[in-house]
Amino acid sequence: MEERHRRRDLKLYYGLENGDQESESSVQHAMINSTDPCNLDGSNFQPQTYLSKLIQERSLTELMDEEQKMVKDIRGLDSDMQTLVYENYNKFISATDTIRKMKNDFRKMEDEMDHLASNMSAITNFSASISGTLQDRRQQITKLAGVHSLLKKLQFLFELPARLNKCIEMEAYVQAVRYYTKAQRVLHQYDHMPSFQGIHADCESIIKQLRGKLMERFRQKESTAKQLTECVDLLTQLGEPAESLCDEFLSHAKQKLDEDLDEMKTQIKLYSGEPAPGQEQRPAHAYMNAGMDVLEFVDLGCNGFLSNMCLVIASYNDMFMNRTVTDESLDTIALRKLVLFVNELMEQYFNSVRQRVQLEKETGDNTILVRALDRFHRRLQAMNKLLPDTDFSRAGTEIVSRGARDRVSHYLQSLKQHFADCLTDIRQNLAAPRLVGKQDNTARLSELLANMQSSVVEQIKSVLGNLQAFIAPDITFAMKPYFRGPFCSQDVREGLVVAFIKHICSTCNDFCEVPGDKTSSPPALLMILSRFCIDLENASISYLLSLAEEQFMVEDRMPLTSTTELFSMAKDTGQRLLNHYVRVQGLTISQMLRKSVETRDWLTTIEPRNVRAVMKRVVEDITAIDMQVGQLYEEGVRKERSSDSSRRTHALSASQPNRRPQWNYAPSVDNSLMSNIQKLFSEKIEIFSAVEFSKVSVLTGIVKISLKTFLECVRLRTFGKYGLQQIQVDTHYLQLYLWRFVSDENLVQVLLDEIVCSAVHRCVCDKAMMEPSVIDLICDRG
């Protein structure tokens, strides 16, 4: 620490370290120690005092260490002093060299200043000599110079007609206009003098001829932009009105642009299949002149119409807007004419592009269409930079968005057609004739459902993959928020996925309408569609919406259809289809039961020996329906079966003989009293209630409708003794088999009891019931 302080003090002594760089604490420390006689770095240092203090306070070993330390500090200080001396010596040498160089430079500068002063003195003397020599003849020389200039101007005027003719012959129109504009003011000023009248008349005649040649070149189609600019500039110098030149230029340019537009319209007609004007339509011509694809069409418009339009705008700006002599009123008029001209032709161009893009609805490839729209969008951005007072990007964006929306609409129609084809395939499979020994082949409803589900989902995924071409990162308009947001949310999610889901629900709801018998749908199709809608609610809707939102990064800024709404729609549709399926199947079985009751004479029928065939057919059909529904829906929940269910069938039969004396010997008592009392203590059976999504619930609904129809038909007939017994046999047979299909066997028992009771009430003869053992024998034999 002390050594570091000593070196710093040494540098301070020589002035090599700035005081601003030293810390305040070090300065204070140095000031405090400067008065200490034992401080080696202080000015009041006393060697004897310091030595005596060390001898008194230190041991021999410490004194030797202090000696070595002091020797080391002395050597370090000597080294620092040598270094400082060397540094100062180098600085002194550099300063000496600089001073010597400055002396040499100042000596050269003094010589040059002396030389310049002598030259200026000589020039002054020479100028004074010339002024003295010409002072007497100055006025005469000035007069002669003026006469000479006037003679040259007169000579130019007299030679002007010949010069103008020579320039016209050589097609040096710029030089001719320069000659004429140079002499025009003089000719007009001295037009009253006879000598100048002839020259003026000749020049006017020649200039009129020159105007004609310039206008002829201006109207030529082969004239380049440079030639047109030159013609306009020269005609303007010759006094031609700028407004008429603007109209003339735009009219001339319109001819070429109209040709480009006509070519585009011709290509549209060829692509749409219309024959070209004046051409006979033949198969070979139709094949060879099929028209350009949309990318070639856009290139035709960009390289032809838009390129020429840009050239016209640039030339027009150079000729009438970006002139050296500006006139604000003329610039305003010229700009207004140009904007009206460009807007009119661009509207026709947009109409042609719009028509051609709309023809791409029926194609399946998006790559070429997207590239064409991207190229079209890029060129319009360049047009906006060329003519800032117009905004073509809005119209171009509308065409691009409309083209993308048309593609979405096309894909939506293809999805609808695909769904209709799936329904047709299912109908054909269901209607196909069953082969002997292979009855189960056409009954695999689960396979038909799985095929339709996978086909629909894969088709939607394929469509979404195709539409991703519109948001590719290398597409210019795909990065614009005014296109990407509405396209992804409103067109793809809402206009395609959500619209297709709603179409599926709407189409399925149409099957729930009750048309004529000839156009009714197969019941199995209703069952498949019902399960399809339930699967939509459970998984497919969430999957499809998530897929669309992930692939197209849909944002929630715009109002979107909620998944809850779609879930509810699909579930309601599935419920309606399932209810309709139950009604259709119940109606089919009811028709058989109704005809079997209405076509039989129950008064004169013979004693029952077996179960009627229609009852066997009912059981067979319900069994087939059970197998059919079981392929698509789970079993469901059943109530626990009663242990004496096999015996309950004969409850009414066993109790009826005991009641016979009441009906025979108490005629004042109403026969339906006991039945009505029984109904009061039984639960009400709702026949057309909503069906749950389970096999037991579906079969319960069908059985309820069938038995209710059977009951109502029995109530409308009159029975004899054997007719009543036949009803007993039929209901017992149904009880033996139908209880296993329903959720609650009591429901079947109640309805069958009501059927038997109704038959008893409608019996006009001896109400003798058949013995239960006989009924069991007949049913077992049946």
Automatic annotation (TrEMBL):
Compartments reported by the entry:
Golgi apparatus, trans-Golgi network
| Compositional bias (Basic and acidic residues) | 637-647
Domain Exocyst complex component EXOC2/Sec5 N-terminal, residue spans: 41-370
Keywords, in A-Z order:
Coiled coil, Golgi apparatus, Lipid transport, Protein transport, Transport
Q: Name one GO biological process term.
A: endocytic recycling
Q: Where is this region: Disordered?
A: 637-661
GO CC terms of this entry: cytosol; EARP complex; GARP complex; membrane
Biased composition of type Polar residues is found at: 652-661
What superkingdom heads the lineage?
A: Eukaryota
Chief place of localization: Golgi
Q: Which family does it belong to?
A: Belongs to the VPS51 family.
Describe the function of this protein.
Acts as component of the GARP complex that is involved in retrograde transport from early and late endosomes to the trans-Golgi network (TGN).
Assembly, in brief, is: Component of the Golgi-associated retrograde protein (GARP) complex.
Name of the protein this chain belongs to: Vacuolar protein sorting-associated protein 51 homolog
Instruction: Name the source organism.
Output: Elysia marginata
- What does the record give as the organism's lineage? Eukaryota, Metazoa, Spiralia, Lophotrochozoa, Mollusca
